[in-house]
Amino acid sequence: MCGIVGYIGKEQAAPLLLEGLSKLEYRGYDSAGLAIHNGTDVEISKCKGRLKVLSDLTEGGAAMQGSLGIGHTRWATHGAPSDTNSHPHINANSSIAVVHNGIIENYLKIKNRLLEKGYEFQSQTDTEVVVQLLDSYYKGDALAAIAKVMTKLDGSYALGIVFKDRPEELFAVRKDSPLIVGVSETGKFIASDVPAILKQTRDVYYLENGEIVRLTRNEVNFYNSDLEPIEKEMKTVQWDISAAEKGGYKHFMLKEIHEQPKAVRDTINPRIRNNDIVIDELNMSEEDIKNLKKIFIVACGSAYHVGMTGKYVIEDLARIPVEVDMASEFRYRNPILEEGTLTIIISQSGETADSLAALREAKEKGVKVLGIINVVGSSIAREADNVMYTWAGPEIAVATTKAYSTQLAAMYLLAMHFAKVRGTISGEQFDHMLQDLRRIPDQIQSILDNGVSKLQYIASHYVAVKDSFFIGRGVDYTTALEGSLKLKEISYIHSEAFPAGELKHGPIALIEEGTLVAALLTQEDLYKKTISNMVEVQSRGARVLAITNEGNEEAAKVSEMAIYIPNTDKHFTTSLSVIPLQLLSYYVAVGKGFDVDKPRNLAKSVTVE
Ligand code: M6R
Asked: Which sign, positive or negative, has the C-alpha torsion 362, 343, 484, 471?
């Protein structure tokens, strides 16, 4: 949550920072602010509202002169969105300005101590203690003061810091919140994420926990928390600049939905060689795979739903028991992690706080961790024993689509690879599945080519719906979970997902006239059972929307409308049936006039617990 950008160089800082922040709004967008060193003073502009409000206030940055500055876009944790709670925060004599991403867990204790010393606080934020602590320790040595402050803070933080008496220096530090350093010909940057600086440079350094960076117009110096200088290796980001732009689409979400064929192809193709699946980055011998006794899949939100699909697919194909945990639960429930267990952490951002903590829990207990990650160089990618990257490219919309689809592809690759090595599927079945796996990108493309206007029409019928339920059996249940989350997070329609067979055990009491029930039927052996459940809800007034395989005419008879997806192997149907559900959510949200890319109360990267 929260996005940070900082700049020191030859150009005016404010317009560059606003440009960078516009690429980070997915991380939070309830308020924004800038601190610019004008050569004499540190000037602050900050306000509640979207970045546009700040941009208007500062005339696109032109009203703030100076080539050193820090910027912030906020997702409120401590203190409601307001002008005062916006970052940057500044000390009483305006000599130190700080932007922060993360949570200072012991801020109340620190605040009370500072209050006793006579410090006054303006905001309700946890961040303000950082600037006041810096004020109390700064005696002319910035690095020493920063290192001292770090010893006092519990929790997570990425900080950008500017001192009034240091017009030639920008400082930053991180612990458990992401921060990168970018170097271009005209200046140096700090940022929470790559898209913020992609227009300026691809040359970046990734800051590790506890590291401090000092940027001047000519130099970049890194230090560990003992203030010993350290060397870091510069990396080149491979992402294309256009990937972080809307490219003519009305929203990033729509663009990313349309990018799915390519994203899935890019994830699958490099791992298919000579009609076999080769996952080099797995670093597991055939012996290791044969000896697997259990797999834990741990993730949050949509990535958790991928884990649920993975459970059905891996258990059925490779016959390895799979347990799927929400990362926020896994870390606190003392899971039994024994020899022969593999933990898989799935995360688009690679920065989700709970998933990162789950990774550490597993590693601490001596279990190998495989990360399925989209953002190269992210915290989880760096800390996992092995990483299987999903090649979705930058995903900006808060509601995940293409990253989710590539994570599914990664699950299929793993399941089939494990199954082949363990001899739990025949060569013939493997070959057949491989053919179907290769066809998924084209099939997604055909749904997009032929389905968009139909989905727009269907969505227009459900814009006014108040409650919705998504049901399915087997992998269809896992697709239902994702369809339901997509709808609720961007259209704010109340929505829940249930295994179709579970309805009668309580949820059916909620069905009333006009309730939307989206029923998924892609598992031929379960058609009849789910059709019975559709009839049950329809006879209680529900409006049933069926999502099913081409040729299943029965489903159309018991539904108001039916969407057909191309036929594929039964393990892969989620990859196809989720596409109409993404489009449905998108067009319902657009129909309701909501800001699809920045849904209320949400942020893309959840770096707090
Ligand atoms: O970056 P991650 O994949 O770890 O994020 C996990 C969830 O926060 C994420 O999938 C979230 O549920 C999305 N908003 C869903 O669209």
From this structure: negative
pTM: 0.81
Q: How far apart are CA 298 and CA 432, in angstroms?
A: 30
Q: Please give the average per-residue pLDDT across 152-168, as a whole number.
A: 96
Q: Which residues of 570-579 are buried (b: 16+ CB within 10 A; e: fewer)?
A: bbbbbbbbbb
Q: 240 pLDDT exceeds 90? A: no
- Looking at residue 159, its pLDDT comes to 97
Residue whose entry in the numeric block shows the structure tokens 């506890």 = 210
Q: Whose CA is nearest to atom 16 of ligand 1?
A: 399
Of ligand 1's listed atoms, the one at least distance from the Cα of 299 is 4
- How remote is the CA of residue 29 from the centroid of ligand 1, in Å? 17
CA of 154 to the centre of ligand 1 (A): 25
Q: What angle do CA 168, 172, 173 make, to 5 degrees?
A: 155
Q: What is the pLDDT of residue 245?
A: 76
Q: Using alpha carbons only, how large is the chain's radius of gyration in Å? A: 25
Q: Read off the pLDDT of residues 164-221 as tens digits, 9 standing for 90 and up.
A: 999 999 999 999 888 999 999 999 999 998 889 999 999 999 999 999 999 999 999 9
Ligand 1 mutation target, pool 348, 354, 407, 481, most atoms within 8 A of CB: 348
Pocket test for ligand 1, best of 253, 309, 400 (most atoms within 8 A of CB): 400
Helix and strand element counts for the chain (H, E): 18, 27
Q: Is the peptide bond before 499 cis (omega within 30 degrees of 0)?
A: no
At 402 the pLDDT is 97
Residue whose CA is at the smallest distance from ligand 1 atom 14: 399
| Ligand 1 pocket residues where CB is under 6 Å | 300-303, 347-349, 352, 355, 398-400, 485, 489, 605-606
- Three-state DSSP class for residue 65: coil
Q: Enumerate the active-site residues.
A: 2, 604
CA distance 224 to 231: 10
Site to probe by mutation for ligand 1, drawn from 253, 300, 373, 495 as the one with most ligand atoms within 8 Å of Cβ, is: 300
- Parallel/antiparallel/unpaired status of strands 294-299 and 341-347: parallel
Domains of the chain (ranges, CATH numbers)? 3-240 (3.60.20.10), 246-425 (3.40.50.10490), 448-595 (3.40.50.10490)
Quote the ligand 1 centre to 525 CA distance (angstroms): 32
What mean pLDDT do residues 126-146 have? 97
Per-residue pLDDT band for 27 (boundaries 50, 70, 90) equals confident
The residue-averaged pLDDT of 550-574 equals 95
